[in-house]
Amino acid sequence: MTDFVSVLEVMEPWHWLSVAIVLVVVELAFVGAYFLLCIGTAAAVVGAALFVVPDLMWQAQIASWAILSIAGIVGWSIYRKGNPTGLQSDEPLLNNRAAQYVGREFSVDVDVPAGDTVQQKLDDSYWSILAKSALSAGDRVCVTDAKSTVLIVEPAPK
Question: Hey, what domains does the chain have and what are their CATH numbers?
Answer without folding.
Answer: 2-82 (no CATH), 97-155 (2.40.50.140)
